Amino acid sequence: MNEPARRASPSGKPLPDAARFLRSWAERPLQMGAVQPSGRALARAMASYVDPASSGPVIEIGPGTGPVTAALLRRGVAPERLVLLEFSAEFCALLRKRHPEARVVEGDAYQISRMLAPLRLPPAVAVVSSLPLLIRPVTERLHLLRQCFALMAEGAPFVQFTYATAAPIPRQGKEHTATPSRRIWLNVPPARVWVYRRHAK
Ligand SMILES: C[S@@+](CC[C@H](N)C(=O)[O-])C[C@H]1O[C@@H](n2cnc3c(N)ncnc32)[C@H](O)[C@@H]1O
Questions:
Q1: Residue 108 near ligand 1, beta carbon < 6 Å
Q2: Average pLDDT over residues 185-198
Q3: Fold of 40-198
Q4: Beta strand pairing status for 158-162 and 192-198?
Q5: What pTM was computed for the model?
Q6: How far apart are the C-alpha atoms of 79 and 175, rounded to whole Å?
């Protein structure tokens, strides 16, 4: 990762989120998967699947600069319930500064079981993901979903957005079923939210 000083604008002032995001996209476009942070309508739609009255952690993977994190907080999820798993050291530093009560873990979400094992979490009430899944083979996406199900309470949602028309992970699996939201036209580009749930045992 680059020195924090490189993360300021030429004027020395901190960069706005859209500029940070765009610069990260220029450095690693595949991992970013978007040129700008999610808009409020999409972030709100993602957060709407999390019941703020439930108890237990809410895991967010790929939080970036935190628009979905902010929507989860606006929805009423207490910050200390948030577990944010993000690959970028720069975004992790930003998230720690903005949300000191949340647990921010720097690492690879495709190894989520190993990454979160030291936290010894009780079953999570949701996993909310913004990962650009489609750059990975379907076997890896399914492996990620299985790991997330193992971290979640029964019936809890795995929430994922995509700009694509197809489901980001096959909608039917041996262990799961998924349902899409309507297309969210207010986002640029328009997106859809998919919710995956494990079949009852
Ligand atoms: C499309 S951006 C979404 C950011 C933010 N949630 C939003 O909606 O604007 C994808 C984010 O996932 C992160 N990411 C990509 N691959 C990852 C991985 N394997 N593990 C953890 N984070 C990852 C990127 O660094 C980036 O912050």
A1: yes
A2: 96
A3: Rossmann fold (3.40.50)
A4: antiparallel
A5: 0.93
A6: 31
> Quick one: average pLDDT of 144-161?
98
User: Average pLDDT of the chain?
Assistant: 93
Residue with tokens 């379907």: 138
Distance 201 CA to ligand 1 centre (A): 31
In ligand 1, the atom with minimum distance to the C-alpha of 161 is: 8
In DSSP terms, which residues pair with 86 in a beta bridge? 106
Look at ligand 1, atom 2, and give the residue with the nearest C-alpha.
Answer: 32
Q: Exposed (0-12), middle (13-18) or buried (19+): which is 173, by Cβ within 10 Å?
A: middle
Please indicate whether residue 57, judged by its CB atom, sits closer than 6 Å to ligand 1: no
Break the chain into its structural domains and give their ranges: 40-198
Q: What pLDDT is stored for residue 89 in this prediction?
A: 96
E strand or H helix that includes residue 177:
strand 176-180
Q: Report whether residue 111 contacts ligand 1, using a CB cutoff of 6 Å.
A: no
Is the beta carbon of 157 within 6 A of some atom in ligand 1? Answer: no
